[in-house]
């Protein structure tokens, strides 16, 4: 398959369903409608998909305009393979609940780790003081 | 009407290409640009013209509803983006700007030629970069300075969406007006010199007619730079070369220019360097003088005997301020001493070769006098280590001086340089 230089290669992906991973960790699925030279994206009928374990839930979001620099990666969704999925789709409420539980568990383990570290007289810098990109 | 437009568009789900339609060919079809002269490497062109791979016809798509939101992005907009990306790929000197692309296709060509020769037909279908041609951009000012304002405005067009604004521009007044002008001047001369060097490199690859043009260009530029270095300030015509030479970059400039100069011009430079040696030495704070040694040495090796004697005579001149000869000063400076040695070595080489020298009247006298003076100076003064010690120096001294003096000279030279001055 031949491709065009730089962002121009996205032109071939227009009007196709894409999965976009953002830098803040969100996963968006939508139809790519428009792009520009910075790879800013316009996604149509977008859905934010939250994954917890083997379950996932979709939150419909409508139209998304994503600034190009915030995209980690994106790719076309294979509609055949989308049908046969191993993951279990649940309702929004359920997945949000699952997410909350997961967050809590993570925070708890972080807290314990920090405590253990403090007891030993060490210090770990907080994540927001680091350069996270 | 492309095949794609004839087909009904299918919903949010993407249409699978029909057997006769290939997306890559379609993309190229849609975006045809006027007056196209494809600026691709020939190997690249060859690859693109090969039939694209057959798309999968095994998967059958069930038709879905019409997508009302399709083609939101017009063709014009798509073309705009392609154009933008393509502009970055244009260049007048692709070997310089896009070295890796050129090199890659050159190697691929070579490899394929090799494989064909060996009868290896394993073809690998790797993704190819399609680069539709865009006409060369017109120049525009990317950064505009509005009169009376303090800052600058970046003008973005589709030719260049972003252009960094320089934070320091030459609008601010300088306290010392004289110096930057000279350095800026030298920089400009350097750019001209770099072009000359580039042309010299290029003339090997170039055709005969172009070579002629190239040589003429080179000559013109060399003469320009030479006359500019010589007379930086038209009023101060008695100070040839000196302003430029006192700046270390000026020395480097002259050193790189020397190989391109005619013999007479180079001789003039050499004579001038020798005459002004005391000032050059005393003001050489960056110790940049040695950079002149190598090209000047080459000039020396091309000198005739009379020319050589003329230059050597300069060394015996007394500097009024210090009441010493240039010779004395030279011995205490590695560049000066090396230059002296180079001159003497050339003289010895000329004398010992069988080539007829056609000396002028009085040349030999001046020569022997100078050699004596030099020997005297070298034996009594403490010497610095030269940049290079020619091997035929002692042979020279043996001709004219007695054994004892020669021996003393030898030990003095050796102790300075740590080399063994070989007597043949």
From TrEMBL, chain A:
<dbReference type="InterPro" id="IPR047575">
    <property type="entry name" value="Sm"/>
</dbReference>
<keyword id="KW-0963">Cytoplasm</keyword>
<comment type="subunit">
    <text>Interacts with SLBP; interaction with SLBP occurs when histone mRNA is being rapidly degraded during the S phase. LSm subunits form a heteromer with a donut shape.</text>
</comment>
<dbReference type="GO" id="GO:1990726">
    <property type="term" value="C:Lsm1-7-Pat1 complex"/>
</dbReference>
<dbReference type="GO" id="GO:0008380">
    <property type="term" value="P:RNA splicing"/>
</dbReference>
<keyword id="KW-0508">mRNA splicing</keyword>
<comment type="similarity">
    <text>Belongs to the snRNP Sm proteins family.</text>
</comment>
<dbReference type="GO" id="GO:0006397">
    <property type="term" value="P:mRNA processing"/>
</dbReference>
<dbReference type="GO" id="GO:0000290">
    <property type="term" value="P:deadenylation-dependent decapping of nuclear-transcribed mRNA"/>
</dbReference>
<keyword id="KW-0694">RNA-binding</keyword>
<protein>
    <recommendedName>
        <fullName>U6 snRNA-associated Sm-like protein LSm1</fullName>
    </recommendedName>
</protein>
<comment type="function">
    <text>Plays a role in the degradation of histone mRNAs, the only eukaryotic mRNAs that are not polyadenylated. Probably also part of an LSm subunits-containing complex involved in the general process of mRNA degradation.</text>
</comment>
<dbReference type="GO" id="GO:0000932">
    <property type="term" value="C:P-body"/>
</dbReference>
<dbReference type="InterPro" id="IPR010920">
    <property type="entry name" value="LSM_dom_sf"/>
</dbReference>
<comment type="function">
    <text>Probably involved with other LSm subunits in the general process of degradation of mRNAs.</text>
</comment>
<dbReference type="InterPro" id="IPR044642">
    <property type="entry name" value="PTHR15588"/>
</dbReference>
<dbReference type="GO" id="GO:1990904">
    <property type="term" value="C:ribonucleoprotein complex"/>
</dbReference>
<dbReference type="InterPro" id="IPR034104">
    <property type="entry name" value="Lsm1"/>
</dbReference>
<feature type="domain" description="Sm">
    <location>
        <begin position="5"/>
        <end position="80"/>
    </location>
</feature>
<keyword id="KW-0507">mRNA processing</keyword>
<keyword id="KW-0687">Ribonucleoprotein</keyword>
<dbReference type="InterPro" id="IPR001163">
    <property type="entry name" value="Sm_dom_euk/arc"/>
</dbReference>
From TrEMBL, chain B:
<dbReference type="InterPro" id="IPR019167">
    <property type="entry name" value="PAT1_dom"/>
</dbReference>
<feature type="domain" description="mRNA decay factor PAT1">
    <location>
        <begin position="144"/>
        <end position="280"/>
    </location>
</feature>
<dbReference type="InterPro" id="IPR039900">
    <property type="entry name" value="Pat1-like"/>
</dbReference>
<dbReference type="GO" id="GO:0033962">
    <property type="term" value="P:P-body assembly"/>
</dbReference>
<keyword id="KW-0539">Nucleus</keyword>
<protein>
    <recommendedName>
        <fullName>mRNA decay factor PAT1 domain-containing protein</fullName>
    </recommendedName>
</protein>
<feature type="region of interest" description="Disordered">
    <location>
        <begin position="1"/>
        <end position="21"/>
    </location>
</feature>
<keyword id="KW-0963">Cytoplasm</keyword>
<comment type="similarity">
    <text>Belongs to the PAT1 family.</text>
</comment>
<dbReference type="GO" id="GO:0000290">
    <property type="term" value="P:deadenylation-dependent decapping of nuclear-transcribed mRNA"/>
</dbReference>
<dbReference type="Pfam" id="PF09770">
    <property type="entry name" value="PAT1"/>
</dbReference>
<dbReference type="GO" id="GO:0005634">
    <property type="term" value="C:nucleus"/>
</dbReference>
<dbReference type="GO" id="GO:0003723">
    <property type="term" value="F:RNA binding"/>
</dbReference>
<dbReference type="GO" id="GO:0000932">
    <property type="term" value="C:P-body"/>
</dbReference>
<feature type="region of interest" description="Disordered">
    <location>
        <begin position="44"/>
        <end position="63"/>
    </location>
</feature>
<keyword id="KW-0694">RNA-binding</keyword>
């Amino acid at each position: 398959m031949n491709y065009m230089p730089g962002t121009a290669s996205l032109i071939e992906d227009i009007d196709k369903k894409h999965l976009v991973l953002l830098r803040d960790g969100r996963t968006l699925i939508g139809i790519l409608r428009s792009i520009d030279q910075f790879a800013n994206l316009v996604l149509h009928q977008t859905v934010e998909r939250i994954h917890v374990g083997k379950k996932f839930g979709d939150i419909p979001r409508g139209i998304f305009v994503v600034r190009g620099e915030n995209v980690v990666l994106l790719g076309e969704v294979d509609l055949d393979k989308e049908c046969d999925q191993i993951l279990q789709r649940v309702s929004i409420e359920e997945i949000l609940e699952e997410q909350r539980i997961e967050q809590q568990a993570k925070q708890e383990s972080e807290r314990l780790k920090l405590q253990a570290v403090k007891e030993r007289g060490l210090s770990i810098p907080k994540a927001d003081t680091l350069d996270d990109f | 009407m492309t095949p794609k437009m004839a087909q009904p568009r299918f919903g949010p789900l993407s249409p699978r290409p029909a057997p006769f339609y290939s997306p890559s060919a379609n993309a190229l079809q849609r975006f045809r640009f006027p007056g196209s002269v494809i600026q691709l490497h020939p190997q690249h062109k060859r690859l693109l013209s090969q039939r694209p791979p057959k798309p999968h016809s095994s998967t059958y798509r069930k038709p879905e509803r019409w997508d009302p939101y399709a083609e939101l992005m017009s063709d014009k907009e798509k073309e705009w983006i392609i154009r933008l990306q393509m502009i970055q790929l244009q260049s007048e000197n692709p070997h310089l700007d896009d070295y890796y692309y050129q090199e890659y296709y050159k190697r691929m060509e070579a490899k394929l030629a090799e494989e064909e020769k060996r009868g290896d037909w394993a073809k690998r279908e790797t993704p190819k970069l399609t680069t539709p041609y865009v006409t060369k951009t017109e120049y525009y000012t990317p950064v505009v300075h509005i009169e009376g304002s303090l800052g600058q405005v970046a003008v973005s067009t589709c030719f260049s969406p972003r252009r960094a604004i320089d934070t320091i521009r030459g609008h601010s007044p300088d306290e010392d007006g004289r110096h930057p002008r000279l350095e800026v001047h030298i920089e400009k001369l350097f750019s001209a010199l770099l072009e000359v060097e580039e042309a010299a490199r290029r003339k090997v690859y170039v055709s005969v007619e172009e070579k002629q043009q190239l040589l003429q260009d080179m000559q013109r530029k060399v003469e320009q730079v030479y006359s500019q270095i010589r007379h930086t300030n038209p009023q101060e015509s008695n100070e040839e070369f000196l302003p430029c030479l006192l700046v270390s970059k000026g020395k480097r400039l002259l050193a790189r220019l020397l190989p391109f100069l005619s013999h007479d011009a180079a001789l003039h430079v050499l004579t001038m360097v020798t005459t002004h040696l005391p000032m050059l030495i005393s003001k050489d704070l960056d110790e940049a003088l040695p950079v002149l040694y190598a090209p000047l040495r080459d000039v020396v090796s091309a000198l005739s005997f009379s020319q050589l004697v003329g230059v050597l005579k300069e060394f015996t001149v007394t500097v009024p301020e210090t009441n010493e000869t240039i010779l004395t000063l030279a011995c205490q400076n590695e560049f000066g001493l090396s230059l002296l040695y180079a001159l003497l070595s050339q003289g010895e080489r000329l004398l010992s070769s069988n080539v007829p020298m056609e000396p002028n009247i009085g040349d030999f006298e001046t020569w022997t006098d100078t050699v004596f003076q030099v020997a005297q100076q070298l034996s009594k003064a403490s010497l610095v280590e030269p940049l290079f010690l020619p091997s035929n120096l002692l042979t020279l001294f043996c001709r004219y001086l007695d054994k004892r003096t020669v021996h003393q000279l030898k030990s003095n030279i050796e102790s300075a340089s740590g080399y063994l001055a070989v007597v043949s």
